[in-house]
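Supplementary notes for students who missed Thursday's class. We covered one full example, reproduced here. Read the sequence, then the structure, then the short commentary at the end.
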Amino acid sequence: MEIINLCENNSLVSQYMSEIRNKVIQQDRLRFRANIHRLGQIMAYEISKNLEYKTIDTETPLAVAKTNVIGDNVVVASILRAGLPLHEGFLTYFDKAENGFVSAYRKYDAHDPNKFDVKIEYLACPAIDDKVLCIVDPMLATGLSMALAHKALLSRGTPKHVHIAAIISTDQAIEYVKNNMPEENITLWTCDIDHELNAHSYIVPGLGDAGDLLYGEKL
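Structure (token representation):
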């Protein structure tokens, strides 16, 4: 598995990461969603450099030009609910992509608030055989949700390549997905890597609960 950290070199990613981590700026929910959307656009652009292209004839007003267009079929799949604005950022650039959705949530132990299982309850996805699958989720904390979502999506076929896109990843999650998603055709893209999980398995320093910041608190 190849790991690509977009914050290793300064760019607009660094600016948007600073804003989405800032607890004051976070209070502007519209701005928070917009920055996640922008990061999705940037990640889609970077991933596009790794796709296969084909040359076609394009008629201009004056002649015919040889142009290169994406030859791969792309499927963008997000983990609900926090993945939605990141998903929309990808669709801004991969406007012809097909779409998949997976629900994953933490079910906590009634007797120990620090213990939980991840449950997958919903899957909607087209066939993914020989397509490029982009799985998007803002926070890759433990890696468990990503591994389970990936397993669920593989029930729809065998993709040509899998790109995982996360805003913040942890060392623990990266190690987990390496061990539990061992296929060679996987690339993990992240906008930054944090090195700590607290007792509740939240990323530190992280940015808080991405889903709540995007859409409001859950009951």
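Commentary. The two ends are 37 Å apart (CA to CA). Residues 29-48 form the longest helix (20 residues). If anything here is unclear, bring it to office hours.
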